[in-house]
Design goal:
Strand order of the largest sheet: 1-2
Helix content: over 70%
Shape: elongated
Number of strands: 2
Radius of gyration: 28 Å
Structural class: mainly alpha
Strand content: under 5%
């Protein structure tokens, strides 16, 4: 086989190997990002569900207040229990939102409003110093 052909085939083999390595790395990044998106979505649904539960509790409390207004007896312990449940749910919502915020890899420039990496010292658009 001609020496130039051998050299060309060797370069092609090396390039193919590099391309395969790059593809494997890219697949790993995509898998990781996909997992992060799934986790973020799961947490967002948790916040949505907790907010719905709070709304139901508030509706029950409103009903109890109205019944008290009409002269009907209501259980004060039940009211306190529902209020405590709301406090717990709001606390959990705050925790989840803090976790979501901590997981962000971007920040917003206070001057131009563009998205920047958290590791950036200056805005990529307007050059403003970022915190």
């Amino acid at each position: 086989m001609d020496e130039k052909v051998k050299e060309l085939l060797e370069k092609a083999r090396l390039t193919a190997g590099l391309a395969a390595d790059t593809a494997v790395k890219a697949a790993g990044v995509v898998t990781q990002k996909g997992g992060q998106i799934v986790e973020k979505t799961r947490r967002s649904f948790q916040v949505f569900d907790l907010n719905n539960e709070v709304e139901l509790l508030m509706r029950d409390i409103g009903r109890m207040v109205y019944l008290t207004h009409t002269g009907a007896e209501t259980d004060e312990g039940e009211l306190e229990e529902k209020l405590a449940q709301i406090d717990e749910k709001y606390a959990r919502i705050g925790e989840i939102k803090a976790e979501l915020e901590a997981g962000k890899t971007t920040t917003v420039c206070p001057v131009c409003g563009k998205s920047c990496d958290k590791t950036d010292l200056y805005c990529r658009v307007c050059g403003e110093k970022l915190q």
